[in-house]
Amino acid sequence: MKIKINHETIYFYEDQVGLGIHKLYLSPQYQSFQRILETSLVIDPKPAGLGTRVDLLGNSFAQVWFDLPTNRLSISSELLIDCSQKSPFDFIIEPYFIHGFNELGFKKFTYQGDSNLLIQPFVHDQISGEMVEFVEEIRISSTTFLDFIVNLTARIHQDWDHLIREEEDFWAPAKTFSGACGSCRDLAWMQMNLLGALGL
Fold it and tell me: pTM (2 decimals)?
């Protein structure tokens, strides 16, 4: 199956401004089941420099910088991707992980060896007691780790309204949770924090 992705962003400024360094995350992360067949990136005004980078999480991005002021910035990207069939459940979960999840109780999940250090920046604990109770209730009623992830995702899909928000940034998880609505990025950030409360 081939997928074509077009992305266009245009900024207008009231006066001439100097543009800082931009990181453009417009390419999918490398996966064995997909290949990028064609790609184009058109930026106006033309940047003084453009380099491709990969961040610590394996995401490819273009780093661009500019030397002249402008009152407009246009970024246009086009990708053609070839995707082969892939089962999302084509993996094995380590037994220690399953045991750690099943024995979690009210304490945080811990990983083996140095993994705790690596994962620490992504573990969130700034969520309300009501949110902890919500995710803990789903965990207790789930029979397996995968069952828990599916159940949590299904509950968010079922109980939260999806909004299209064009303003920047994402809402705090508590706002998304209490309002029972949010954009895709708001809902994703809330779910990440719910999982982080368990140490996942």
Answer: 0.63
